[in-house]
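Thread title: Can someone regenerate the structure for this chain?

I was given the following input by a collaborator and told the matching structure tokens would be attached. They weren't. Posting the sequence so someone can regenerate them.
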Amino acid sequence: MKNEKMTEIMAKAKKAMTHVGKVTIVLIAITVGFILGEMYHRIHESNVEKAPLDVKAIHKMKETSVAINERNELMIINRTSGTYDIYEDSIGKVIFRLYASQMVSNAQ
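Best answer:
Regenerated them for you:
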């Protein structure tokens, strides 16, 4: 009787330890993967040179026209290609305020 209970308890303990062992292995694998990923990220990040800013071509006044349409939208027209960009009226007002404040500060 005692022997049967002891074997039953040992069987349950082995089964529980098997589950605990599997969970432990998974947790260790996740932890090691995280640590290795962080190390790779930090090494790779320090070796990568940051690319310089991609400077767009500056549009000259000879090749650009600026207009305001009937809906007060700002139009910037490329004379050479005929393409244009339309901006909402609030963007034109913001640009105007920026230049106006710069002119006021330069005048003072």
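Residues 61-107 form one domain.
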